């Protein structure tokens, strides 16, 4: 039996819209998966329930896709309440099939769904609402780039009980952020010193201090090359925030800074720092600000201030650093990680001098 739909030859899975003749295989798969689904969702398991389900997903603002691997039904993805106009949004639901759970098929299928949603249907946003204890489903959407947007109590009725749900969402910008053309837009440029940088930093620090709860922020400092008068630099204002507690900040900082236009680097491997970027493509036209949140006891807080202050008082070292940055920006224009790594030896040398 052939299944025509969206196929990814690298993943070995296919998705296609549900058909009326799928009734038997659909019900068999859902009936055998009730233990897996309970208590999170209730899939159709009777002929009448399938008929109602199938009818609902024939409407123009609803889509149901079946996921197949080697002609076996491995999962179901439901796209509901598709809204056009200013919103361009839809909601995502899904059912795994017990016999094929835990094999990576749902993740592969979700990638195909996202391609369908953002590239073919042209939507801007997709939201999945998941009960907080449903760890498998949360892991699935998080792994595939969805971001946590909050929690609503008594949000959806599941098994005749109103349950609270977490909101996980992805926008078109999230979907394309790792594309090569987007990454190339986030390139490194070193520009001449701008006398407005100190004022821009002062304005932004005032906004930041006003946005956080009282006593959660101990200090704010303008750091990095834009804090050194006369130095050519990437046109990005770096602001370091000393927090009373990094654990507290992990709870409150993300929504606060999102309102100010920042994106959070959730995959940052450095456990001593939270890092936020404003203006980074595709969320903006170019980086304008970085925010680093640390505790005062961290090496980051002391190190960035020591480095800045040493260059402020040692013009020869500042000139060497400027020339190094210009050279490295030419060599690593499209690779920020290599650019940063290549500066580390010089920075460490300066920190040793500053500490003596």
UniProtKB/TrEMBL annotation:
**Entry-linked Gene3D superfamilies:** 3.40.630.30, Beta Polymerase, domain 2
Query: Pfam families annotated for this entry?
Result: Acetyltransf_3, GrpB
Q: InterPro entries of this UniProt entry? A: Acyl_CoA_acyltransferase, GNAT_dom, GrpB/CoaE, NT_sf
**What keywords is this UniProt entry annotated with?**
Transferase
Can you give the residue ranges of the N-acetyltransferase domain?
A: 13-173
Instruction: Give one GO molecular function term.
Output: acyltransferase activity, transferring groups other than amino-acyl groups
Residue ranges annotated as coiled coil are none
Q: Protein name, please?
A: Fused RimJ/RimL family protein N-acetyltransferase/nucleotidyltransferase
């Amino acid at each position: 039996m052939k299944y025509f739909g969206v196929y990814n030859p690298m993943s070995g899975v296919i998705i296609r819209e549900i058909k009326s003749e799928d009734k038997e295989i659909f019900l068999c798969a859902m009936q055998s998966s009730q233990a897996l689904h309970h208590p999170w969702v209730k899939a159709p398991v009777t002929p009448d329930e399938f008929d109602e389900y199938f009818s609902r997903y024939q409407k123009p603002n609803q889509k149901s896709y079946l996921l197949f691997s080697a002609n076996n039904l491995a999962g179901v993805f439901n796209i509901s309440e598709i809204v056009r106009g200013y919103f361009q949004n839809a909601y995502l639901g899904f059912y795994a099939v017990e016999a094929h759970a835990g094999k990576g098929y749902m993740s592969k299928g979700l990638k195909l769904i996202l391609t369908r949603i953002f590239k073919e249907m042209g939507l801007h946003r997709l939201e999945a609402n998941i009960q907080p204890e449903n760890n498998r489903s949360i892991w699935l959407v998080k792994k595939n780039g969805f971001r946590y947007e909050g929690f609503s109590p008594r949000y959806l009725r599941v098994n005749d009980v109103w349950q609270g749900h977490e909101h996980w969402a992805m926008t078109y910008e999230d979907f394309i952020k790792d594309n090569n053309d987007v990454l190339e837009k986030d390139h490194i440029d070193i520009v001449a010193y701008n006398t407005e940088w100190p004022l821009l930093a002062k304005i932004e620090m005032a906004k930041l201090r006003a946005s956080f709860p009282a006593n959660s922020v101990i200090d704010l400092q303008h750091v990095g090359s834009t804090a050194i008068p006369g130095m050519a630099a990437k046109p990005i204002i770096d602001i370091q925030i000393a927090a009373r507690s990094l654990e507290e900040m992990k709870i409150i900082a993300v929504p606060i800074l999102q309102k100010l236009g920042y994106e959070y680097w959730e995959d940052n491997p450095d456990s001593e720092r939270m890092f936020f970027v404003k203006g980074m493509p595709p969320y903006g036209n170019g980086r304008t600000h970085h925010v680093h949140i640390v505790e005062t006891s961290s090496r980051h807080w002391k190190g960035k201030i020591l480095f800045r202050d040493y260059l402020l008082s040692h013009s020869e070292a500042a000139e060497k650093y400027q020339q190094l940055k210009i050279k490295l920006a030419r060599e690593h224009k499209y690779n920020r990680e290599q650019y940063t790594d290549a500066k580390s030896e010089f920075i460490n040398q300066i920190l040793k001098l500053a500490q003596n």
